[in-house]
Amino acid sequence: MSKKIYIDFAYLIMLAASFGAVIVLGAVVAPVIFNSDKILVDISLDHYNSGIIMGEVFHRFSYWLYVVASVVLIYEAVMYKMGQRDAIAFASSVTIVFSSLMFSAVYSPKILAMQAIGLEATQSDTFANIHMASELDFKILAIGLVILFVRRLMLLRIS
Length: 159
Known about the structure:
Layout: H1 4-34, H2 47-81, H3 87-117, H4 119-122, H5 125-158
Helix pairs in contact: 1-2, 1-5, 2-3, 3-5
């Protein structure tokens, strides 16, 4: 058996784990943090402080997204160079790289900067638009991850 299979397997695990993390953060962690008043007994977090906590979670997750973007870029470039060119894999990998970088380098820092200004900044239309765009970007990232995972799995089976 070729040693390349271990690299392919590690790549697929990274894609699946990243997809799982995006889903867990968006569908589990965020709703729990923003509805903490229903869970906590003697402590009450307002929406602003819940946002501060969630912002820190996403800020830390951004470091992982930098790793994901780098690994996807390198792996897909090597596959392209080896002649394993596929339009679906290329499109989804470009989507992952750009959405990861947009979330990590643009949306998260802007949201954290506005949170640092104070409550008034987080109630502005600008903040609402940036937040909505970051949520959309996170969904696009999830779709790109699952498409690339499935496509690379299919291409692995063919070869």
